[in-house]
Amino acid sequence: MAIIKWTPMLDPFEEMDTMLNHFSENRAIMFAPSMDIYQTEKDVVAEVSLPGVDPKNIEVAITNDVLTIIGKSEKKSEVDDKNYYRKEVRCGSFQRSVALPATVNCDQAKAEYKDGILKVVIPKVESVKLKTIKVDIK
């Protein structure tokens, strides 16, 4: 009968964390920024959390009532001599598309970036009223 050395089970999250760190170190990093969308009487408003992102690297598009935010976060300088234990400050490309809750007029949309928050205000299209047509009988 062989004696097997008992080793306590490793934390399962530690293995997953190691795997994700390996993945992120060896490939381009993509992340999805947090986004809040709400409606006012006249507008649909999206607020996107993008701290540290240069506004010049942000693109906003609206197509068929879908809002898309595309951009990239760059690290200005990488310090190789730091002995990181954990590195969670994100950088890389991002893209986020969300269907809007109302029909909007994308030609009048406005976007501003302040204090790490991108705010996109898109006017709603006035609802189309039903028009009845009289049927001619011949």
Describe this protein's structure.
By secondary structure, the protein is mainly beta. The chain is built from one helix and eight strands; from the N terminus they run αββββββββ. The protein has a domain of 85 residues: Immunoglobulin-like, CATH 2.60.40. It has a four-stranded mixed sheet with strand order 1-6-5-4, with no helix packed on it. The model has no long low-confidence stretch (mean pLDDT 80).
Write the layout of secondary structure elements.
Blueprint: H1 12-26, E1 30-31, E2 35-39, E3 43-49, E4 58-63, E5 66-73, E6 92-99, E7 110-114, E8 117-123
Parallel strand pairs: 1-6
Antiparallel strand pairs: 2-3, 3-8, 4-5, 5-6, 7-8
Question: Would you kindly provide a brief summary of this structure?
Answer:
The chain has a 4-stranded mixed β-sheet, with no helix packed on it. Strands 2-3-8-7 form a 4-stranded antiparallel β-sheet, with no helix packed on it.
List keywords for this structure.
four-stranded mixed β-sheet; 35% strand; single chain; four-stranded antiparallel β-sheet; 1 helix; 138 residues; mainly beta; 11% helix; CS_dom; Molecular chaperone; Immunoglobulin-like; elongated; HSP20-like_chaperone; Small_HSP
What CATH first level of the domain at 30-76 and 90-127 would be assigned? Mainly Beta
Strand content: 25-35%
Which structural class should the secondary elements be placed in? mainly beta
Question: How many helical elements?
Answer: 1
Helix content: 10-25%
**Mean pLDDT over the full residue set:** 80
Please state how the strands of the largest beta sheet are arranged side by side: 1-6-5-4
Assembly of the depicted chains: single chain
Reported for the largest beta sheet, the result is: 4 strands, mixed
